[in-house]
Amino acid sequence: MAASQAHSSLNCELRIIEAENTESISTGKLFVRCFLCTRNNEKIRLNSREIPSTSHPYWNESISLQCSATKDCIEELKQQSVMFELRWRNTTPILGKIGRSKVLGRAEMLWKDVLESSELGIERWVTMVAKRSHVLEGFNYPPALHVEMKVRVPGTMETVKKRRWGECECGCRHEICNGGGGDDLFALASAFEAL
Asked: Which long-range contacts (CB under 8 A, 24 or more apart) does 98-107 make?
């Protein structure tokens, strides 16, 4: 990166679109819980909004997190993933209280796949897997979640797409051009923990 852009930031975008194969759930609400890791190996938990369980639940809900665009932070991001949990909550009160949510399945996507894609983004259907089994109990087919992950560099998107990570605009790999630093990977993530 150019020296003037050494301390720029990346916007990491995560979008929960929809789910399928949830026909066996007739009551209650569904939501998606995401787990992201910070540079200190702490996990941030983010929840989508709860929607009534239907045969084709649809959220189309996005979240954007900001992290440093230094070479070290990008390499750190390549090592991270996002864990998705499809969760169900029974909304029928038992003894006057709504119960805890139950995990229907989990799936994981790697930021490395996003960073190495030509468009710096991927959109996929990921199959939810039970913790101990490949087929979830009570489902004919395991639920699947449609998600999108993107990385955007404000003001430099075209430049980033045309060259590999770690190269500066002059084509070299000088440390002075690549920048450095130790900012937290997801500097704004704590603002979203309350979702």
From this structure: 101/31, 101/33, 103/131, 104/22, 104/25, 104/30, 104/128, 104/136, 104/143, 105/129, 105/130, 105/136, 105/142, 105/143, 106/130, 106/131, 107/83, 107/145
